[in-house]
Design goal:
- It contains two helices and seven strands, in the order βββββααββ.
- It has 117 residues and is mostly beta strands.
- It has a single domain, classed as Urease, subunit C, domain 1, CATH 2.30.40.
- Strands 1, 2, 3, 4, 5, 6 and 7 form a seven-stranded mixed β-sheet that branches.
- A hairpin with a 2-residue loop joins strand 1 and strand 2.
- The longest helix is centred in the middle third of the chain and has 9 residues.
């Protein structure tokens, strides 16, 4: 047995942003380096052991300077978030969750927050 191997991490959320569109009820499996290894749909993650749940929109490959990038996004609350993210994500960036959205229009609100995972 290899005890030095890092375990994978599973994260569920309400939504996931991808360049191909929004995924509902995502379940992400992350490797030891934080890369997304797999994306599945899981409408009831509560029953899964060792699964973290974050309310909001998961965004992989968000710029490493995520707070500054988020402030720029907040400055354009009129544009739907999927359009803003298409211009913002960066290969090799970090995984974040954005909460406090207007889910009907997929726009940021004054209550929106960002958290690096």
């Amino acid at each position: 047995m290899n005890f030095s191997a890092q375990p994978t991490r599973r994260i569920a959320s309400n939504l996931l942003w991808t360049s191909g569109g929004i995924v509902r009820n995502p379940l992400l499996t992350l490797g030891p380096d934080g890369r997304v290894l797999a994306v599945e749909s899981c409408p009831e993650p509560d029953g899964l052991a060792a699964t973290e749940f974050y309310s909001g929109l998961l965004v992989p490959d968000f710029p490493a300077d995520y707070r500054t990038a988020f402030e720029r996004l907040c400055g354009d609350s009129a544009t739907p978030l999927p359009e803003l993210l298409a211009q913002t994500v960066t290969p090799g960036g970090v995984l974040v969750v954005i909460s406090g959205l207007d889910y009907d229009s997929l726009r940021l609100t004054p209550e929106s927050l960002i958290r690096k995972l």
